[in-house]
């Protein structure tokens, strides 16, 4: 075995072991583990310091900085809270609140990045749980599952989708994602809470939850700026896709659009420094370190035998899409979904895959993999940490798996027919 292969296995063992041991060291953030792996990759591996700019995708980084900035202002101004509480106040029973909350969390994550909803969602989930008489643990599980599902259907719903939109070379990623994934995502956002409501044994009773949206707006100016920039960003990406479809001049690197929009926001925000302080810089560090680490692991060649065994070539058949789904679900539990997508994108490039359905299948399966176990998505860890530190409750690995296995099976049963028969 070559030294590069040994190093790749050691890096994989470090990442997997670190994630499994994380409950014993809750103060150790995930990004610090990835940064250690990146240091080892550069210090001992085939990559040198001069190779870092070549393997780091700056479009994805600027996309994340831009989206985190926009959503940070929307959250700090009270805009997201106002909308969320107003939405839930329209519902009149525990079942309708449960289903409505799933739609709310899911749709928010589709436009505001799922990790952001994982950060701002727990207080809302707790408030709704108190008002509706639902256990915290049940509402937090619903939050975890629904924000994962909702983030599937847009290229700005989660980091791995943005990475796929960039790596795939799709001319119209927003429209392509919505065309293939919007309907099954909406179905899953309704079917999943119905399943969980039954599994949790929650009794359906009438509930009167009153909320006045304007009471949650803490800064009207910032709320207005955030609303304009957020809606403008989504509109700009959609308009860019339509321009690409019609053959008109368009932007090829759509990941830069949110950052350009945020550049305007920084000037008009009441406190630009606070906006930047609320950016999830740990996630940015995670991505920089991940690009370095995954390039080293792929160079070692230890994962290629597995991927080539299940997907030796790509012809666009149903079996190929199922192979991509199986690899995504399984390896995302080992590497987490974003690092897996980073690695697997390289393999699809080697196969010369340009079929949008293959990339959409990768986006769907790598994201839904987060519903299987706690380790499948970073958003799960974020929610768990808030639940333990602020609400004195927890969700064990086996408890999550108990419900997550059924939810993942349901999600795949809905998504796969839409992909295979399209």
Structural features, described:
This protein is an all-alpha fold. The chain has one domain (3-421). The protein is 75% helix and 0% strand. The radius of gyration is 21 Å and the shape is globular. It starts with a helix and ends with a helix. 50% of the residues are buried. The mean pLDDT is 87.
Number of domains: 1
The number of distinct β-strands equals 0
Radius of gyration, in Å, reads 21 Å
Pattern of helices and strands: HHHHHHHHHHHHHHHHHHHH
Q: Any idea what the shape is?
A: globular
Keywords:
single chain, 422 residues, mainly alpha, 20 helices, globular, Cit_transptr-like_dom, transmembrane, Arsenical_pump_ArsB, transmembrane helix, cell membrane
Write the layout of secondary structure elements.
Layout: H1 3-21, H2 30-44, H3 52-55, H4 58-76, H5 79-89, H6 94-112, H7 114-132, H8 136-150, H9 159-168, H10 173-200, H11 220-245, H12 256-268, H13 272-277, H14 281-300, H15 304-310, H16 318-335, H17 337-351, H18 356-368, H19 378-391, H20 397-420
Helix pairs in contact: 1-2, 1-14, 2-14, 4-9, 4-11, 4-12, 6-7, 6-8, 6-10, 7-8, 7-19, 8-10, 8-19, 9-17, 9-18, 10-18, 10-20, 11-12, 14-17, 16-17, 16-18, 17-18, 18-20
In summary, what is this structure?
It holds the Pfam family CitMHS. Helix content is 75%, strand content 0%.
């Amino acid at each position: 075995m070559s030294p590069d292969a040994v190093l790749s296995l050691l890096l994989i063992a470090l990442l997997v072991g670190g994630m499994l041991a994380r409950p014993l060291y809750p103060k150790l953030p995930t990004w610090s583990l990835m940064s250690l792996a990146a240091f080892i990759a550069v210090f001992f591996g085939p990559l040198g310091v001069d190779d870092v700019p070549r393997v780091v995708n700056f479009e994805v980084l600027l996309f994340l900085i831009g989206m985190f900035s926009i959503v940070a202002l929307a959250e700090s101004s009270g805009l997201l809270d106002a909308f969320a509480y107003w939405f839930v106040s329209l519902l009149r029973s525990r079942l309708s609140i449960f289903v409505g909350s799933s739609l709310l969390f899911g749709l928010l994550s589709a436009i505001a990045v799922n990790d952001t909803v994982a950060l701002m969602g727990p207080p809302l989930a707790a408030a709704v749980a108190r008002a509706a008489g639902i256990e915290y643990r049940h509402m937090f599980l619903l939050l975890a599952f629904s924000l994962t599902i909702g983030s599937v259907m847009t290229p700005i719903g989660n980091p791995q989708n943005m990475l796929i939109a960039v790596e795939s070379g799709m001319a119209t990623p927003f429209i392509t994602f919505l065309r293939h994934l919007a309907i099954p995502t909406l179905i899953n956002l309704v079917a999943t809470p119905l399943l969980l409501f039954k599994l949790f044994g929650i009794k359906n009773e009438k509930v009167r939850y009153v909320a006045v949206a304007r009471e949650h707006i803490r800064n009207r100016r910032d709320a207005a700026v955030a609303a304009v920039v957020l809606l403008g960003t989504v509109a700009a990406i959609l308009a860019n896709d339509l321009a690409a479809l019609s053959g008109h001049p368009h932007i090829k690197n759509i990941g830069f659009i949110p950052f350009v929009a945020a550049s305007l926001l920084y000037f008009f925000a009441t406190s630009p420094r606070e906006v930047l302080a609320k950016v999830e810089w740990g996630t940015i560090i995670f991505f920089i370190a991940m690009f370095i680490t995954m390039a080293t692991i792929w160079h070692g060649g230890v994962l290629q035998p597995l991927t080539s065994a299940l997907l030796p070539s790509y012809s666009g058949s149903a079996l190929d899409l199922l192979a991509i789904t199986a690899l995504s679900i399984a390896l995302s539990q080992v590497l987490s979904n974003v690092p897996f997508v980073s690695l697997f994108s390289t393999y699809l490039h080697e196969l010369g895959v340009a079929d949008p359905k293959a990339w959409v299948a990768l986006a769907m399966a790598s994201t839904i993999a987060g519903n299987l176990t706690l380790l499948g998505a970073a958003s799960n860890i974020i929610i768990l940490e808030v639940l333990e530190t602020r609400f004195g409750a927890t969700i064990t690995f086996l408890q999550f798996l108990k419900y997550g296995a059924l939810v993942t099976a349901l999600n795949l049963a809905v998504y796969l027919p839409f992909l295979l028969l399209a």
